[in-house]
Amino acid sequence: MEKLQIQTSQNIAIDHTVASAGERILSYILDYCFIIAYAFVFMVLPAIFKVQSGVYYLLMLIPVIFYDLFFENVYNGQSPGKIIMGIKVVMIRGTAPVFFNYFIRWVFRIIDNLLLSGAIATITILLNGKGQRLGDIAAGTTVIKIRKKINAGNLIYLQVPDDYKLVYESVNLLQENDLRIIKETLTYLKENPKSENYQTIAESIRTKIDKKMGAQSKQHILAYLQTVLNDYNFLNK
User: Fold this and answer.
1) What's the confidence (pLDDT) of residue 10?
2) Per-residue pLDDT tens digits for 29-53
3) Is the pLDDT of residue 113 over 90?
């Protein structure tokens, strides 16, 4: 699977797995099926209710035409097909996509997907190296696989022994969002021990936690992050 480094707003480069051409094709097929189902229902209704109006059919076409643009803009880079496949649209430079980026992708969809039955999009994605079709290149976007999200609420219910020895008493200076970031970072570092950015990410998160807690940790980064999570859970049983 192709990997892509995307710089976050904290200037940390994170490795993401680029969605394969096959995954994108499947998501497109799923979306196409939803559109066909929608169109079928609205084609049957006039026959049932004996409606014959050009305006009706025009209004029916609007959701079909703007399907991708609407869903990607409203659901943060995901259409129903992408949600099912676990992929989403992101910016190459790490910022959040805006309406303009989705609009550019939507405009280029005519060239990418409709001309030559999507062959142009498939070839471009395979050759580009960043999982980009022409619309992605123009919009500065790509499509990546989504990591499983971690429920911050679950952090409170980690199993900590009653005789647990508290290490960092100032851990309650951290907020729930801090704990979510710590948990996600810990998971990432465990899953990507050979990442080129391992040390950068490790030192960055350590510095931020130390500053917030007023601590000077000496533990290995994995042990440190786990200890912080354990301490927080111990104090907030």
Assistant:
1) 47
2) 999 999 999 999 888 887 777 767 7
3) no
pTM of structure: 0.64
Lowest average pLDDT, out of 5-9, 86-90, 167-171, 212-216, goes to 5-9
Q: Cβ of 110: how many Cβ atoms within 10 Å?
A: 10
CB burial class (10 A; 0-12, 13-18, 19+) of residue 197?
Answer: middle
Angle of helix 21-49 versus helix 67-74 axis, rounded to 10: 120
Q: Which residues pair with 14 in a beta bridge?
A: 6
- Specify the pLDDT at position 55: 81
Do the beta carbons of residue 91 and residue 31 sit within 8 Å? no
Three-state SS string over the chain comes to CCEEEEECCCCCEEEEEECCHHHHHHHHHHHHHHHHHHHHHHHHHHHHHCCCCHHHHHHHHHHHHCHHHHHHHHCCCCCHHHHHHCEEEEECCCCCCCHHHHHHHHHHHHHHHHHHHHHHHHHHHHHHCCCCCHHHHHHCEEEEECCCCCCHHHHHHCCCCCCCCCCCHHHHHCCHHHHHHHHHHHHHHHHCCCCCCHHHHHHHHHHHHHHHHCCCCCCCHHHHHHHHHHHHHHHCC
Of 116, 28, 40, whose CA–CA distance to 68 is shortest?
Answer: 28
Q: Does residue 7 carry a pLDDT above 80? A: no
Q: What distances in angstroms separate CA 100 from CA 66, 71, 79, 124, 189, one per listed residue?
A: 14, 14, 17, 22, 34
